[in-house]
Amino acid sequence: MSLLDAVDLAQKLSKDEYVAFMDALEINMGQLQRQAHEMGVPITIVFEGWGAAGKGRLINELLLALDPRGVKVHSTLAPNPEEFHRPFLWRFWTKIPEKGRMAIYDRSWYSRFIVEKMDPLMERLPVKKAYDEVNCFERQLSDDGHIIIKFFLHISRKEQKKRFKKLEKNPMTAWRVTDYDWKKHKQYDTYHDTIEEMLSRTDSDYAPWHVIPSENWRFAGMAVFETVIHEVGRQLKKRKEAQKAPAMQLPPVSKSMLDRADLSKALTREEYDRQRKIYQQRLWELEHEVYLRRLSVVMVYEGWDAAGKGGNIKRLVRRMDPRGYEVIPIAAPNDAELAHHYLWRFWTKIPKAGHFAIFDRSWYGRVLVERIEGFAKENEWKRAYQEINEMEEVLANQGTLIFKFWVDIDQEEQLKRFKDREKTPAKLWKITEEDWRNREKWVPYREAVDEMLYRTHTPYAPWTIVESNNKLYARMKAMKTVVKALEKHLITR
Questions:
Q1: Are the C-beta atoms of 213 and 219 separated by less than 8 Å?
Q2: pLDDT for res 124
Q3: Domains 15-241 and 258-492 fall in the same CATH topology
Q4: Residue 424: is its pLDDT beyond 90?
Q5: Which CATH architecture has domain 258-492?
Q6: Residue 262 to residue 429: CA distance in whole angstroms
Q7: To 10 degrees, the CA torsion angle through 442, 448, 453, 456?
Q8: 74 and 103 in contact (C-beta within 8 Å)?
């Protein structure tokens, strides 16, 4: 039997029973909210359901039992122009609650299936991939400590019609029922099948669905409170009692991309100047084509200290229109960033359609500096390979073109550049004690780089090794890589 059909819609609760139950439930709810705040556990509650099923009323009942300073309610409507020109999950990643806080969604990322799947003009991604993206999104949050509770409020077709008519009779509420609502009501059976598929394909151990019979609002309210209290209480207890998780086991790294890099490659100044003018002009032309076609481009620059990332980026964008790109330097996370999932701060910077985002260091810090310096636990950085691949696949599915450059030099060249910086007043600010400390850890960093390249080199987001002992050669290689890939992509679209 299906999840919806298994629900007994006849369940009711009298006013006296409701009052008797709710007094204790509201007290428990407040206590659990404070406990979650103290433990730094974020909570996400999703409300989906039929039109007129009572989502607003139940959310309000829930809020009355909570400290509103720790809760944010998000009402999900059709995407505005800013949201439409970003990857679908962008507007939800940017709203995830920080540690110890709660987010309640009046409709959510599931609009992708309840609305977009039923409207071919809005659907932007094959359904299977869309399900995979949503499941990955929820799993990543859960792995990071989020508690996710999902409700679907269920009423019959007959009950929905009754409620629509009641709303229409009242001048104060008539606006809430639209022609679109009646159109969906006529397609109740079709939506029923769509919702069943959605529930079954996104019901998981880390984010299960709770189908609530909602023809009697008191019974629905009690069921919502009991479910939230049970789930939050169970998850908080699990976190308190949890032992240290065993280390994740990953397959060994079987090859090194760095070993294949030829750092002797070089370019003369004359040849560099000739090629640079050609490719910078072509980049300027392609930037405008990217804008006209509403593509997104993400570039990631990683590399050794003093490898020349900044100079490479500077030459890359020299002729580009500054309104069409942003260079984003990534430093250590601030307090607000530390209070969220580590990918949150990068999702907030994903470019909208038609623009370039160039990251000077990136999310790969998780498996490099955070790994080597101990800022991320072993299971956190091991888990990050999959999470990063999933994020990049989501971007690629939405039409984003991704470039990832590892700017490579050898130890001797790095030492030479470090000493040159110390002797040159204009460059002195570029060299720090941290650079020298990192140099002492060259071997473990190289092992981390090799593993990063091996585990995150994918067809949709491949790595390019930029041999940079000769800076001129490195700058042209990056430029040529971008130009050729953009030309190929634009021709095949």
A1: yes
A2: 59
A3: yes
A4: no
A5: 3-Layer(aba) Sandwich (3.40)
A6: 30
A7: -160
A8: yes
The CATH code of domain 15-241 reads 3.40.50.300
In a 3-state reduction of DSSP, which class is residue 14? coil
Residues 23-31: what's their mean pLDDT? 94
Asked if pLDDT for residue 121 goes beyond 50, the answer is no
**Rounded Cα gap, residues 237 and 41, in angstroms:** 12
b/e per residue, 220-240, with b = 16+ CB within 10 A? bbbbbbebbbebbeebbeeee
pTM of the model: 0.93
CA dihedral 387→401→299→442, nearest 10 degrees, is 50
**Phi and psi at residue 243, to the nearest 5°:** -85, 170
Q: How far is CA 426 from CA 94, 430, 469, in A?
A: 38, 9, 21
**Do the Cβ atoms of 99 and 42 come closer than 8 Å?**
yes
Q: Tokens in use for 183?
A: 């159109």
Length of the chain: 493
CB half-sphere exposure, 363, CA atoms < 13 A? 25
| 50 vs 387: CA distance, rounded Å | 33
